[in-house]
């Protein structure tokens, strides 16, 4: 019964609702305006394909699998560099205000655990992207201190607004500190583009993926063909990463 309810919900809530409406318009126009109906059908199919998890998982998974996570014994670096992924402003936290969004929080936890194992310093890179968002590096520093990381082991780069700036600004700080072998911690889907950006500024990193979105191995079941806003968001994220990688290649 629960799967029937999920199926019905998927076509009552966006984007499933819009898929139903577009398909209804396609049928209505089929005889009177065939060419228009065909265009609507193509748009409907594109919307459907982009909003099902079987497609979003393939796209995100293909990015996440590009760099395997190294074991602790394989770690080789002199600093842990963590990239931000957004933060809220003014929201209550245990020892202040402002919180990391999901992916940024996962990256932060991974960095704290790696620091506990290796003792390496942490450099968190990320600024305040919008007027109503939090400054990622400043919030990260407060939260890492709250998790027991010593202040002497923390560095922040709080001006970057995108991955390219993360790489540029981080490279400057690492050069000033005499550090040159960063372990780069970010989401698995974000690593391929991040590695390319750091390579552009002359830094060879050891990739350490975290914040996985797709199970390994992944299973096939019917609900992966239900449209959902979360699957559409994942598809958009993957496309953004591929376009970003293409842009880096063009610049090179």
Automatic annotation (TrEMBL):
Record has Protein transport as a keyword: no
Superkingdom, natural source: Bacteria
Keyword Membrane applies: yes
InterPro entries assigned to the protein according to its UniProt record, in alphabetical order: Cell_Envelope_Assoc (IPR051599), DUF218 (IPR003848), Rossmann-like_a/b/a_fold (IPR014729)
CDD domains: YdcF-like (cd06259)
Keywords associated with the record: Membrane, Transmembrane, Transmembrane helix
A Gene Ontology biological process term: Gram-negative-bacterium-type cell wall biogenesis
Segments forming domain DUF218: 78-244
PANTHER family named in the record: ENVELOPE BIOGENESIS FACTOR ELYC, INNER MEMBRANE PROTEIN, PROBABLE PERMEASE
Protein's name in the database: DUF218 domain-containing protein
